[in-house]
Amino acid sequence: MPTLFGKFCSKAELLGSIGDLSQIGGVHQVKLVGGYQDGVDAVEFRTGSGFGFRVVPGRGLDISLAEYKGIPLAWRTPAADTGAAYYDEPGLGWLRSFSGGLVTTCGLTYVGAPCMDQGEPLGLHGRISSTPASNVCVDGAWEGDEYRMWVSGKLREYRFKAENLVLRRKISALLGQNRVWIDDEVTNEGNTSTPHMILYHINGGFPVVAAGSMLISTSGAVTPKDSDAEVDKEHFYLNESPSIGFRERCYYHDMSAASDGFSYAGLVNRNLPDGGQTGFYVKYKTDELPMFTQWKMNGVQEYVVGMEPANCLVEGRDKERARGTLQFLAPGETRKYHLEIGVLSTSDEIDSFEDMVKSAR
């Protein structure tokens, strides 16, 4: 039963009080116009609680915008929701159309730094976030006294005589709640075993990221990725004010599970200028996504912290292969991934989240 405007509302009570569900919330399709995003298909969600977000089927079925009661959660770049046709693959070309957003999916056959893997040149972070979805379905339905809204579709990564992977994705939310669920299935529909790397690039931005805001997670050991991350590594979790010349710092977290069997990471700011607090978390299982990278980028304009559950590290497919940790999908094999991203909007919610995280360490 959804909680709306401070009270529980049954289906009958709610529908008897409004003309149409769109008065409160819901999900609908739009098409973006202007510039590089012209013609991109998008889906807008409103849960009626103040939580809203945008999914872009035209760009990997990723989540490009998210806010709670007017407070933005995600960092955004000037690339906005650049159309898939403008994808630039070689080297670091991926960055030309990187919008940031709440979730950018990396993969499906390679993730991380550009490299040469067995004679094949690979760019940054893969192609899937610049792939338009097909078989897109946008709908909502009552489940008893709960109203669920969703968008689903599939994305294919194919090359003749090489990979043929399909990602089937469903993104859903419940009326009256401040959470979004991502349910993914990746299947090898080809006839040969294929490398499979996937990473969920979850990008927190101002004011969730601000001087004194923190990363809170169920991590034990934390390892700097390189010499840049060795700088002030004791404060890996703590954000500073934006600065010119800040060099990104990446940390690998050894994640533990809380009592419910899930791992958690959250970004929280307890000191908004108006005295409020804000934040959000990601919840997932390490048997699906065993690696977690924290991307700390406290630069001017490039002011973002990434929480990145994955099945790999971010050093490139050649390094993953050399370590013997590169994942493969056999013909017909499917892997499933489930994530929940939720808002932390009050002192009590943040306190409860922090207590739960501490108990898991």
Largest sheet: 8 strands, antiparallel
Give the % helix.
Answer: under 10%
Mean pLDDT: 95
Q: Strand-residue fraction?
A: 35-45%
Question: Overall 3D geometry?
Answer: globular
Output the number of helix runs. Answer: 4
Write down how many β-strands occur, each being a DSSP E stretch of 2 or more residues. 25
Element-level helix/strand string: EEHEEEEEEEEEEEEEEEEHEEEEEHEEH
Strand order of the largest sheet: 11-12-13-14-25-21-20-17
How many angstroms separate the termini?
33 Å
Task: Describe the fold and architecture.
There is one protein chain. With 361 residues, the protein is mostly beta strands. It is built from 4 helices and 25 strands. It has helices at residues 11-15, 227-230, 317-323, 347-360, and strands at 3-4, 7-8, 26-31, 41-46, 51-56, 62-68, 71-72, 103-108, 115-117, 120-122, 134-143, 146-158, 164-174, 179-188, 194-195, 197-204, 214-217, 219-224, 249-255, 263-269, 278-284, 291-298, 303-310, 328-329, 334-344. The strands form 6 sheets. An 8-stranded antiparallel beta sheet has the order 11-12-13-14-25-21-20-17, with helices on one face. The protein is globular and about 65 Å long. The two termini are 33 Å apart.
Give a quick set of tags describing it.
six-stranded antiparallel beta sheet; 361 residues; eight-stranded antiparallel beta sheet; 8% helix; mainly beta; 4 helices; single chain
Layout of helices and strands:
Elements: E1 3-4, E2 7-8, H1 11-15, E3 26-31, E4 41-46, E5 51-56, E6 62-68, E7 71-72, E8 103-108, E9 115-117, E10 120-122, E11 134-143, E12 146-158, E13 164-174, E14 179-188, E15 194-195, E16 197-204, E17 214-217, E18 219-224, H2 227-230, E19 249-255, E20 263-269, E21 278-284, E22 291-298, E23 303-310, H3 317-323, E24 328-329, E25 334-344, H4 347-360
Antiparallel strand pairs: 1-2, 3-4, 4-5, 5-6, 6-7, 8-16, 9-10, 11-12, 12-13, 13-14, 14-25, 15-24, 16-23, 17-20, 18-19, 19-22, 20-21, 21-25, 22-23
